[in-house]
Amino acid sequence: MNKLLILVAVLAPLAGCGLAEVGVAGGASAASKAEEVKQAQQTEARMQKQIDAAYGQAAEQRKAAEAASE
Q1: How far, CA to CA in Å, does 69 sit from each of 1, 15, 61, 63?
Q2: pTM (2 d.p.)
Q3: Distance CA 12, CA 9 (A)
Q4: How many H-runs (helices) and E-runs (strands) does the chain carry?
Q5: Per-residue pLDDT tens for 20-33?
Q6: How many CA atoms lie within 13 Å of 69's alpha carbon, on the beta-carbon side?
Q7: How far apart are alpha carbons 16 and 13 in whole angstroms?
Q8: Angle at alpha carbon of residue 50, lines to 46 and 53, rounded to 5°
Q9: CB of 35 within 8 A of CB of 29?
Q10: What local confidence, expressed as pLDDT, does residue 32 receive?
C-alpha cells in the first residue's frame, strides 16, 4: 500500500508534462520486445525439431537403401 502511494506521489507531478506517458510507453515497448523474443525462440525451437526429424528420416532412408543393396 505504501509503495502504491509513493508511486502515485512520484508520478502525479510528471503526468502533466507527459513524462509519465513516456515511461509507460517505454515499458509497453519493452514488454512487446520481450514477447517478440520469446516467440522467436519458440519458432527457432520448432524449426530445430523439424530439421532434426528430417536428418533422422534421411539417416533411416540411407540405412534402408544400404540394407536393400546388400
Answers
A1: 77, 78, 12, 10
A2: 0.52
A3: 6
A4: 2, 0
A5: 555 556 666 777 88
A6: 6
A7: 6
A8: 140
A9: no
A10: 84
